[in-house]
Amino acid sequence: MFVIFLTVTILVVPLTVEDAIISKNIAKWKHVQSGFSSIPISMMNNQNYRDNGVVSLEHFINALIKVHPLKNPVSYKIKYMNGDTPDEKYVFKEIYNTDNGASVAFKWFDDEKIKGEDKIEGMLMYDVNGRRGPNVWGKDIFGMNVYANKIEPFGKNEDPITVESDCSKQGTGVYCSFMMLQDIQEP
Prior knowledge:
Blueprint: H1 2-36, H2 38-44, H3 47-52, H4 57-67, E1 70-74, E2 95-98, E3 103-108, E4 122-127, E5 141-146, E6 151-153, H5 160-166, H6 176-179
Antiparallel strand pairs: 1-2, 2-3, 3-4, 4-5, 5-6
Helix pairs in contact: 2-4
């Protein structure tokens, strides 16, 4: 009987610990959302945006550091939920530590020919626990599309079946950025 109990404990405890860590990471992701919502407001208050409808990388960074002061750059490997290495779209070359132990990275798209509310200005990656593992999209790494007037988590504009499929062990985990904000927790 003791052997059966021990075997079950050995099999269940690692899952419980991993689930607890993921739940904590999701809670952190939900918590930082309110801070990120102030970034578009700050960018739109910039004179260049008011005059030309253009948001620059400099104005984005200034708005970002008001929410998350950036510290020294760091480097570490990031994986998709299915274990694959991210493709170029979700690779961020410069990752920065923040005051709260998280990591932030961003890309900016300098295409001034395209304007309007639906234009994605850039992308933001947020690792809720920084270099500490698991460093996996959908478990501790989440991301957002940056528009001039809003910031939306990856997956928001996708259909629910695509989001759920991506936020699984066979998917990339990128769309968990949206799914985890919806209180659907299936990583």
